[in-house]
Amino acid sequence: MKSLSDILQQHHKFAEVIRNPLPFKKLDFSRSNPDLLQRDLSKTSVFTDYVFEEMLDHSTYTGIGGYGEKRVIYRQLAHFSKQEENPRCIHLGIDIWAPAGENIFTPLDGKVHSFAFNDHVGDYGPTIILEHELEGVKFHTLYGHLSLDSLTYLYTGKKFLAGDRIAAIGNHPENGDWPPHLHFQVISDIKNYKGDYPGVCSLKEKEYFLFVCPDPNLILRI
């Protein structure tokens, strides 16, 4: 039986999740970016200015990246460092850094698995999880840091076709108090999670979670 990664890689076409016409620029939130070791980005307005004014050159690019990245930025957020012996630092999705209000579209046919307002600083904020099936294999896609009104009129089982608008990028603080961006993640085994799923794991858990959450760029193809 084919793995989910193989099925996604061989699928002929996915609809665009973001239709922003700006060129993409890969962003680095790992230790190799010296700015992150020298600045206090715990204040969201400062972090937002750093992303959009400096990293994205006054919003002339759309930011992209993060899958499997060991991020140092999480050290400044208590939400990720509660377990000091085994802090979460490995990013399991791809982030698309674009302005609040940017529309988000489903890449393939699916239905609403669950949704929630994960209302904690550093969390997803409004979150939607869709269920899909390709070649008889079920899997899920997660969309985090949305606008709160993206959850309006949703219900479990609501169907979407590839290319349908499903949400919009949210602004801080309702989006988990982050600079505006979409966290997009693929999940092969969601277990009993509803409206939430780990988007960051510890080094100890890295092998398992990167296996269960294959590279979202197999769908995004950016």
TrEMBL record:
Keywords: Signal
Name of one Pfam family that matches: Peptidase_M23
Keyword Transferase: no
GO MF annotations, alphabetized: metalloendopeptidase activity
Signal peptide boundaries: none
Superkingdom, natural source: Bacteria
Residue ranges crossing the lipid bilayer per the database entry: none
Family annotation (PANTHER family): L-ALA--D-GLU ENDOPEPTIDASE (PTHR21666:SF289), PEPTIDASE-RELATED (PTHR21666)
UniProt-recorded name of the protein: Peptidase M23
Species name: Dyadobacter psychrotolerans
